[in-house]
TrEMBL record:
This is DinB family protein. It comes from the Bacteria. InterPro entries: DinB/YfiT-like (IPR034660), MST-like (IPR007061). It comes from Streptomyces prasinus.
Amino acid sequence: MTTQRHEPATDADDRTMLEGWLDYHRQTLARKCEDLTDEQLRTASVPPSELSLMGLVRHMADVERGWYRRVLAGEDAEPLHYDEADPDGDFHLAGTETWQEAYTTWQAEIDIARRNAAGFGLDDLAKGRHRSGEQFTLRWIHTHMIEEYARHNGHADLLRERLDGATGD
């Protein structure tokens, strides 16, 4: 399976541009994980780091959930992979996690994020609040998510190259 990526049109309106770049970066992370085994996807970068491609996908599922469900929509959606006792639990893999499970969960959170975002204008304030107590607009959340994916896609580039030598965007 090859994930298709599409950059937004150069003359798109603000919302189309932001959502286009967000989807582009979501698709980039999916591409970085393609054609690898579960074992490869669980392989940590370099000790002592526990960073892995599967960990990044699990992390982004929780990030999508946090921003688009808890903050934007004001939903009571508990974290999926971490808790107060293990705040980096999304990166702590036991060795039994599967790509199918991680990918399906991530995609479900993306689908919910899209549905929730569709109910807001870019300048509308979120219904919920961040753990800092602040409220954010959908525009800010989309921009932050593009930054979050872009940063982690840089990590994914290095992880993938280490695993099988594959490079490229």
